[in-house]
Amino acid sequence: MKLTDAEWQIMNCLWERYPATARGIAERLPKDVEWAYTTIKTLLTRLVEKGAVKENKKGNTSLYEPLLSKQNARRSALKNLANQAFDGAFGPLMHFLIEDEKLTDSQKNELLKAIQKQDKKEKSK
Amino acid sequence: MKLTDAEWQIMNCLWERYPATARGIAERLPKDVEWAYTTIKTLLTRLVEKGAVKENKKGNTSLYEPLLSKQNARRSALKNLANQAFDGAFGPLMHFLIEDEKLTDSQKNELLKAIQKQDKKEKSK
DNA sequence: TGACAACTTCTACAACTGTAGTAGAATGCT
DNA sequence: AGCATTCTACTACAGTTGTAGAAGTTGTCA
What we know:
Chain A has 6 helices and 2 strands. By secondary structure, chain A is mainly alpha-helical. Chain A has 2 domains: about 5-65, Winged helix-like DNA-binding domain superfamily/Winged helix DNA-binding domain (Arc Repressor Mutant, subunit A, Orthogonal Bundle); about 90-125. Chain A has a two-stranded antiparallel ribbon. In chain A, helix 2 (about 20-30) crosses helix 3 (about 35-50). The longest helix of chain A is centred in the last third of the chain and has 19 residues, at about 105-125. The radius of gyration of chain A is 19 Å and the shape is elongated. The mean pLDDT of chain A is about 90. The interface between A and B is medium-sized, with 34 and 34 residues. Chain A binds a DNA duplex through helix 1 and helix 3.
C-alpha cells in the first residue's frame, strides 16, 4: 500500500492516537501544516477508500482508526525506495546510509548493539 | 530534487551509461518495462525541464547525460522518506531496517565493518 | 532523388494529488 | 423553538504523472 505525502501526514497523526476524529487529527498536525478542515476530511475519505483506515460513524461524527499499521507502511515505503534507487536490495541501502549519513558515536554504538542483538535472537532460534 | 517512479527508471539507465540516446536508454530499460519510444522522450524532456538531465543535440539526435547525481538522488529520496515516515531522523530508519529486514550473517559482518571503518575515518580527521 | 527509417516536437488525455468551497443535516445553547 | 456551531457528503479544479499518438524533419541507402 502506497501513501502519498499528504496521506502520510494524516496517518502519522492517526497512529499517534486513535480512534480519532477528523478534528482531533487536525489538532495534532504539525504546526506548519495549515489545512482546511475539509481537506483533512477528503484525505480521510480517500484513505478509507484505499482501505488504509476504518471509519466508524458515531452519531453525528466519524471516528477513524488505522487499518494499515505503521510497521507495514514503513516496510512498503522502504521496499519501494529500495526498488527504485538501490536495485531492490536493502544491503546497499544500509550501506549508503552508513557511509553517507553522519552518525554520532552513540548512534553507531546503538546500531552495533542492535545488530548483535538481532544476531543472537537469530541464533537461538 | 524529487523524481517520480518513471523518472527513476530513466535515470537508472542513464547513470549506468552516459551520454546516451533515447534509443540507448530504451534498450537498457528492464525487460518488463515496455514503453513506447515517445514515452521515453517525454520523460526525458521533463527531466531536462527539471534540470536533472542535460540534453545535447548532436545533429539529428539528442544525447543525454545526468546533471543530478545518483548519490544526490538517493540522498533526497532517503531524506524524504525519513521525513515522512521516521520523524525526520535516520537513526530510527536504520534501526527499523536492521530489526525488520532479515540480514544474512555476511551482510551483518559487512555492516559492522562498514560502521567501524567509518568510525576510524572519523577519528583520524 | 525518392522512399523508408529514425528522430524530434506537440498535443492529448485519464488517473492521481493537493487543496478547498458549498450546501444540507445534526447538535447544542438560550 | 430558533439560531449558531459543527459535521458530513458532494463537487471542483488546477497541477502532476503515466503513457502515447500524430505530424513534421532529417538521414540514409538503393
